[in-house]
Amino acid sequence: MVAAVSADFVHTGPGTLAGRYLRLFWQPVWLSRELGRGRAVPIQVMGEDFTLYRDTRGAAHVVAPRCPHRGTQLSTGDVDGDGIACRYHGWKFAHTGECVEQPAEPEPFCDKVRIASYPTHETAGFVFAYLGPPPAPPPPHWPEVGDFAYRHRIDCNYFQSAENIMDDAHVSFAHRRSLLNLSTRMSVPRVAARETAFGLTLELQYGGSVERNHFIMPNVCHLVDRHAWGTLRVLFAYVPVDDTHHQHFLALSSTPAFAARVLGRLIRLQRNVDAWYSDRTREILSGRRTLEGVISPRLQDSVLCVGQGAIADRSAERLGRTDAGVILLRKIWQRELELFEAGRPPARYQRPETFPSGDGDGATA
Asked: Taking the model in full, what pTM does it have?
C-alpha cells in the first residue's frame, strides 16, 4: 500500500507545528557523563541554539545561547557558582536567567536584563530539558535503565529513526552480522501494533514467544531484548538537532548487570564521535566502503536511515504487513498534530509507571 502522509512531523524548528508539539515534552539534550562541573557547551535542539552548563555544585542548566549585551556566545564564558559569566564583559546570569553582575558598568542595571532559562532534569544518564511554554510537565524518571548511556548524531531527519525502531522486521536482515546476532529477534516476526495510553506497542511474534517495543509519544521507545547471555532493557530517544540531523540517545541496563558494562565497552570502541559516524556512513553510501564487516548496529542503522535521504520522501513508499508499527505511529502523530493545530490540547503522554510483566506488557500510563 502507498503511505498517506499529510501532517508535517518532520520540520521541528521554532514556530513549526511539530516543533511546538515536541517542545511540550521533556527532551534529552546531552549525556550526563559528558558534562563536567564548571563546563559549558553550545547545543542545538530542533533548530534552536542554547547554552548548557553544569554549575560548580553539580546541577545542569540550560539558558539562552548569547549574552544580551553584545551578543557573543555564552558557552565561551565562565561558570561561576550556579551562574555563568560572559567572557566578553563579565555580565553574569543566574541559572534562572536574571542578570546578577555587570562589573564594567559604573551604574549597573541588572534588574532590567534577563535571558531565557529552561527547566532541566537528569535521569538514565541523560540531561533532559523542557523547552516549551510553562508550566513544565512532571520530569521523566527512568530507574530501569542507565547502567550505560550513549549518544551519537545521525545525519538525517529524526523521524526516520523513530520509524526504524517500529520496524523490527529489519533486524534479521540489517543486523544479521552484528552485536545483536544472539538476540531472540533474529528471525522475521509476525507483526501487530496497538495504541496504548502512552503511545503504541509493537507486538512481535517469533514462534511461541512474543517480544514488544513500547513507543512512548512523541519520540521515545522502551524495549527488552533477550540474548543468550542475558536480558537487556533499553531506552531510545530521537531528538532533532535540526530538520536534517538528530541525536540518537540510548540508555541500557541488563541482567546480569555485567552484560551492560561489557556492551558499553564494545559500543565505546566504535568511537562515540559524531564525525566518525558521519564519515563512515557517507563512505558506505558513496560506495567507497561496504557494510560487509560492519558489526555495529548503530552504524548499520545510520547507513540505512541516512540512505533514505536527509528527509525521506514518503510519497512513493509501498508498505506491507510488517510495517504495522510505522503506519500506526504516523496515524497517531498525524491525529495529535491535527488536534494541536485546531487549538485542542494534545494528550500529555507520560512514560508508563510500571512494566509488570518484565517487558512492559499491560503497562499503564
From this structure: 0.91
